[in-house]
Amino acid sequence: MEVKVPSDIEIAQQAKMKPIADLAMEWGIEDEELEMYGKYKAKISLDILNRLKEKEDGKLVLVTAISPTPAGEGKSTTTVGLGQALNKIGKKAVIALREPSLGPVFGVKGGAAGGGYAQVVPMEDINLHFTGDMHAITTANNLLSAAIDNHINHGNQLNIDARQIVWKRVLDMNDRALRDVVVGLGGKANGFVRQDGFMITVASEVMAVLCLSTSLMDMKERFGRMVVAYTYEGKPVTAKDLGVHGAMTMLMKDAIKPNLVQTLENTPALVHGGPFANIAHGCNSILATRLGLKLGEYLITEAGFGADLGAEKFLNIKCRYGGLKPAAVVVVATIRALKMHGGVKKTDLASENLQALDKGFANLAKQVENIRKFGLPVMVAVNKFVSDTEAEIELLIKKCKEYGVDVALNECWGRGGEGGVDMAHTLVNLIEREESSYKPLYDMEASIPEKVNTIVREIYGGNGAVFSPKAQKEIKKLEELGLDKLPICMAKTQYSLSDNPELLGAPSGFDITVKEVRVSAGAGFIVCLTGDIMTMPGLPKVPAANNIDIDENGKITGLF
Amino acid sequence: MEVKVPSDIEIAQQAKMKPIADLAMEWGIEDEELEMYGKYKAKISLDILNRLKEKEDGKLVLVTAISPTPAGEGKSTTTVGLGQALNKIGKKAVIALREPSLGPVFGVKGGAAGGGYAQVVPMEDINLHFTGDMHAITTANNLLSAAIDNHINHGNQLNIDARQIVWKRVLDMNDRALRDVVVGLGGKANGFVRQDGFMITVASEVMAVLCLSTSLMDMKERFGRMVVAYTYEGKPVTAKDLGVHGAMTMLMKDAIKPNLVQTLENTPALVHGGPFANIAHGCNSILATRLGLKLGEYLITEAGFGADLGAEKFLNIKCRYGGLKPAAVVVVATIRALKMHGGVKKTDLASENLQALDKGFANLAKQVENIRKFGLPVMVAVNKFVSDTEAEIELLIKKCKEYGVDVALNECWGRGGEGGVDMAHTLVNLIEREESSYKPLYDMEASIPEKVNTIVREIYGGNGAVFSPKAQKEIKKLEELGLDKLPICMAKTQYSLSDNPELLGAPSGFDITVKEVRVSAGAGFIVCLTGDIMTMPGLPKVPAANNIDIDENGKITGLF
Fold first, then answer.
1. A190 close to B176: Cβ distance less than 8 angstroms
2. Residues of B in contact with A538 (CB under 8 A)
3. B361 catalytic, yes or no?
4. Domains along chain A?
5. Does residue A9 sit at the B interface (CB-CB below 8 Å)?
6. Interchain CB contact of A368 with B (< 8 Å)
7. CA–CA separation, B340 vs B108, rounded Å?
């Protein structure tokens, strides 16, 4: 019964990849729409969206999950596996994933392109420089930073209050020493001294804009609207005021084009854009999703963290801006994680525990219920681990059926697409049986507190939101500036439906405290922070970098 | 007589480029050795050097110049034009250039890929992200920085003295605010507070290593040797001590491969690596040069600044490490610049001034003399400007002939390769007539003061070098560490043969003051600084970025 699966990198290095030009041709991408980056990666020109304008869209399927635990869920593995499985049963499916940041590669070992026999390849390239999107974002972000300090240095005509610069520099690196810095030291020639900080590139609003833009010109408009500072009079200063939104857009002219790679079974994979899932919305780009809908009968995509964060933002932010209408949602669960939601410690996961599984099911039930509030058909995919017992699997399937939700096992990690055939059939049946009546959960025109309260009550299952005095002041300011009629981007712990990471399962009777409110006016959402969000990771005592090597043949070791 | 030439970007945007795969095939590059980056850029696998090991090398020709003035010389334009002209007269010529930094693109308008009808294309791509080499260097450099602070944060087992960290962070951006910074603020979680600074990426030793490496493993060795800090006992701490030289090499696995593009006339152009010409050696990569020698009968390349800096380093550092033997050197001069060397102000250059030209010739004569000290055949290329008068041209040619050096006009800027036919013939004749007896100017085993004095006396025409007390102390330390038996990399003003930028022409009777001595142990040279070298440029009051824009068709305006 137990499957012997080699390590991710061993599997990836043995993959039989198709030349990406061949794959593109098979899926209807024309030669002049393809820009090669080596033999197995390509960017796709946005012109294709115009050419295929009249073609009917495929079915949009979101893969989301229960609240994550240290036991792992396998959302990417499910997304990749489901795409492979759909193709196996004769459906044309494309997948769309977020692209990984380089920083974490050197921190704690672990890739970001699926796992086992459900991976996206060429895995090493995707996890390293890939097609340069991250570097373009870093450069565009930091050009804007340089423009701010340069403007102040040359007379500060815009009257920028250096104490109220909200735009930070970024680097695609885990580097704690850069979290809080002082810049401009060294005398007159180096400008004015001020406090600043670096975030990791994926935390940049430039990344969020990339992912929510619907065209190059839409991107330029969004860059122009980004608020970088406030004047002494409290007026927002934008990238457009500094005159560099055009140059930033030029820097992003290739980054805006979706990247095409493939899964281990040659399913087309669009890997494009990867914003933070707390201070941003945590989904791949709208353009990649739209492209995938034109290329396939099904487009399978995912969103960061559990459904309370990832799916909520996908459905309230991304689908709204992208004019997207999902056909169904897959909620990924693992028996291990549900047992943790039921009170089991990580060290005790190997033993069968039906009681804990029964109790932990509440988290899954709540996430399923939430998806239905958006008017969407939903199914559960159980990502099978070798430690799961027959009795546990049986119980989970029984509970799903009792709850009235379709369920299927996902064995793609160990068996590739073949291990997801049942899951694929379940999904196809669900979509054919149930019509999507998707609608966002709240009206954008509602006040910030109204929108936040809707999310807290409907999605998290809490009593309501409490706003700190600081947050109240910030809300008032956004209302005065007319910047409050935007969707909400909650920055909350991913580990609980509440804002307390210790409250697993499906807690109730809690309040959510919003400590801080910021606007990402270019991306087009209001970030509500319920705690401190780390936007620049550090390296561990022995970083993964110290085990990475490359030999004279270019063979990499120690990476994943 | 006057030629009407459109702007560089207009010419570049109208170029008839060959698909780079076709060009590569014509020049004997095999399909599996080519990695496409779009249709007009490619990287070439280093495997080709092994395949062509037995093939005879082409002739290596260096293009260098008189001491630069604000009037401009046109070294890149001459390099590109000469390559085009050689192909026009039936010789197979390849060119090799440095790749430009992104930072300056947003500062003062001006590209770095030749000009007029002697340009390398696709010019916009080359000046923007190109194939990602700069970004790879930035990342590798900053991984090492993060490793230093991370090591100290986690207990500082190597006993690094935080006051003696010599490794800086980098960004490919003109950003004066980052020259002097304090990092690690914000409390215990963010590490130890210390002073730091950012340089522009091209100033990184990682760039110099890229350009001096002869293989991937040689690069890894060199990264490992780089000195990043000293311990409290004064012992050097290297990248290898920190254990990240393998990961850095992995990050550079694609950057090490030469980039292939083309000129406006489809001459192959290897544009690869671009280190600073003061604190580093200012030449494109050894690997690109070696590759070009295998592909063409002639490989035309250039070095930064005037011959006293660029050619001297090319001949004493790059050729030594690369096992290269140049066949000839072309010294570029313009009548405008020679008149400035003769005392004319920039505003008065439009008027004929034979007396100033006659006087300014001394700088050209000295640079020619210097080349001969290396045992090399040399010719002068006069880069023609529309303002040059017949009498001026006649005088300059007469003076060259009197001096005993071959001379030809370069009219490639206005006429492409056709305008360099005479120059190409002159070069071919020179090489056929005169045998190169190239040898470096000094013995690496000599002491640092001996080596510096040789350069000052033989090349600059000065009395000798004076070492500040600080420099003397540093020399002593390098001698103790056994790091003094390396070539010298002079960091001196490019505007004068002396260390005083005001002394134009061919000054004599001066001393050179070495204020500071540093080792770049990975690159493999000792940097002798004669003044403050700016390693992080700033932006002007109205940066070029503010005029750059891109429209809905992706057409860029305001860039060059």
1. yes
2. 150, 153, 189, 191
3. no
4. 8-131+255-433 (3.40.50.300), 133-248 (3.30.1510.10), 448-529 (3.10.410.10)
5. no
6. no
7. 22
* 8 A C-beta contact, residue B483 and residue B48: no
A75 is catalytic: yes
Q: Give tens-digit pLDDT for B129-165.
A: 999 999 999 999 999 999 999 999 999 999 999 999 9
Q: Does B110 touch chain A (CB under 8 A)?
A: no
Most B-contacting residue of A250, A547, A551, A552 (CB-CB within 10 A), to test interface: A250
Q: Residue A443 corresponds to which amino acid? A: D
Whether residue A413 lies in the annotated active site = yes
Report the percentage of chain A scoring pLDDT > 70.
99
Sign of CA dihedral A114, A118, A122, A124: positive
Q: Position of tokens 């085993």?
A: B445
Residues near A377 by Cβ (< 8 Å), separated by ≥ 6?
A327, A328, A329, A430, A431, A433, A434, A435, A436
With beta carbons less than 8 A apart as the criterion, state whether B124 and B113 touch: no
Q: Considering Cα of A316, then A318, then A324, then A327, what sign does the dihedral take?
A: negative
DSSP assigned state of B4: -
Chain B residues in contact with A135 (beta carbon < 8 A): 129, 132, 135, 138-139
Q: How are beta strands B114-115 and B118-121 bridged, if at all?
A: antiparallel
Assess B182–A contact: CB distance below 8 Å, yes or no. yes
> Considering Cα of B241, then B242, then B247, then B253, what sign does the dihedral take?
negative
Number of Cβ within a 10 Å radius of residue A433: 9
User: Looking at chain B, how many residues does it have?
Assistant: 560
Helix (H, G, I), strand (E, B) or coil at A40: coil
Candidates B66, B38, B221, B210; CA nearest to B130 is: B38
Residues 6+ apart with CB under 8 A from A110: A104, A560
Quick: pLDDT tens for A388-436. Answer: 999 999 999 999 999 999 999 999 999 999 999 999 999 999 999 999 9
